[in-house]
Design brief:
Length: 428
């Protein structure tokens, strides 16, 4: 609408701010349209593909899982920094990125899980390479940097250290020899924690300032370290953080300080982080109120999800959608949490919601060439959504693989139980 038309409606004087918003929106749209004209052909093709909707065909958990792991191997091999870490992403505009310490940290766990499942030792050795690289970049105080390996400033960051602690703990259990770097990371987290359980001293320079409830995912790293090294205060520090985060949980399960950049409409990605941390606190302590708290948040996320498994990329405090695109990372993370809740409660609504979400993610993943995108998971669906725009993210693939492995295990367990009952009836 032009300004003359707007004034003819008699509303401009009543709401000049609205007029300015419209002008900004028009300028933004014009910029976006201009930028789209300059996009590479592959990016334009992917927009068209996604705007046509998800394919009806689902390639299935086993085939998609193999593709995901293949893409993560490629991301390790193609990292611009060629250091044993995993490239942050493959961009349809910029190509492969350099290694990302934070997410390489917890990708170690996924590779070790897949190595055991598949019986292929190559995944175990790749995990060892990742862990060795992480040890080589640990900062003098025990913490780890934020951002990619070539990002600046190079400063210790709470969240990234907690995610790498997950990988160091898993590497210590699998290989041995990682106890000292694991201790140094965990000790640094304990020493930098505030008395109320929050971490405020070492925020990421790549996120908006403010307290972060999704750092319950850091607490999970401490729980894993505590299982290896009890008596060093790791478990207590982790529990203190989870208790701090839940102190402001709303009755409907909402967490008000749970986003990288906009707490009024957090990403489902960061909500998934927070929920997993609470679930791991329950698994560590067995305290029933923690399971109740996790269920409140998980139930809100079920209300936000669609029958096709779609989960909006950002949500408001009443669990309504604030965007129409999906954050595929968040969908996979939340699906994993729902599956874990099904294991704890046997409530089938959690399992069914997770299966729908996993199917949504599977249908968004290509299982055919080109290699750069085969098995990769986009930041957003459609690909031009605001999160990880035009990028295939290593942590999205990691979380999708984790969720599919858990789904396969649950299906195998159900089939085994059904077969066992059938044999019992036949013998009966």
């Amino acid at each position: 609408m032009c300004e003359r038309c707007w004034r003819s409606c008699g509303r401009a004087n009543d709401d000049k701010a609205a007029m300015q918003r419209i002008k900004r929106a028009i300028k933004s749209y014009a910029r976006d349209a201009s930028a789209r004209l300059l996009l590479p052909a592959a990016a334009k093709a992917e927009i068209r593909r996604d705007r046509a909707g998800l394919p009806l065909k689902d390639a299935g958990s086993q085939r998609v899982l193999a593709a995901l792991m293949g893409w993560l191997c490629l991301a390790q091999d193609k990292s611009l920094s060629a250091d044993g870490g995993v490239a942050r992403d493959y961009s349809l505009i910029k190509g492969w990125a350099s290694s990302y310490p934070e997410t390489t940290g917890y990708i170690v766990n996924t590779f070790l899980d897949y190595a055991r499942r598949s019986g292929q030792p190559v995944y175990r050795e790749r995990a060892r390479r990742m862990a060795n690289w992480l040890v080589s970049i640990q900062l003098p105080g025990g913490g780890f940097q934020g951002g990619k390996i070539d990002s600046t400033p190079v400063v210790p960051v709470t969240f990234n250290t907690g995610q790498i602690l997950l990988g160091l703990s898993a590497a210590q259990l699998e290989f041995g020899g990682y106890l000292e770097p694991m201790r140094r990371a965990a000790d640094w987290l304990v020493s930098t924690q505030d008395p109320d359980g929050c971490w405020r001293k070492h925020p990421s320079p790549f996120a908006a300032p403010g307290e972060k409830e999704y750092e319950t995912h850091v607490a999970w790293g401490l729980f894993e370290a505590a299982r290896i090294e009890p008596g060093r205060g790791y478990g207590q520090a982790g529990m203190a953080n989870v208790r701090w985060a839940l102190s402001s949980q709303s009755p409907n399960g909402w967490l008000a300080r749970c986003c990288l950049d906009d707490p009024t409409q957090p990403l489902t990605h960061t909500l998934g982080y927070a929920l997993r941390g609470v679930l791991e606190a329950y698994r560590f302590s067995g305290e029933p109120d923690l399971l109740d708290a996790a269920r409140k948040t998980a139930d809100g996320l079920i209300r936000a999800s669609g029958e096709d498994g779609h989960l909006p990329g950002r949500l408001r405090s009443d669990w309504s959608a604030s965007v129409d695109w999906a954050c595929l990372t968040g969908v996979a993370q939340v699906a994993t949490c729902w599956l874990l809740l099904f294991q704890h409660t046997q409530e089938t609504r959690y399992r069914d919601a997770a299966f729908r979400a996993n199917r949504f993610v599977r249908r968004a993943i290509r299982v055919e060439p080109p290699l750069e995108t085969m098995g990769g998971v986009k930041g957003s669906f459609p690909v031009d959504g605001d999160y990880g725009q035009f990028e295939y993210l290593n942590w999205a693939a990691k979380f999708a693989a984790d969720s599919l492995m858990l789904e396969i295990d649950l299906n195998d367990s159900t089939e085994a139980n059904t077969s066992q009952k059938s044999r019992a009836r036949e013998l009966g």
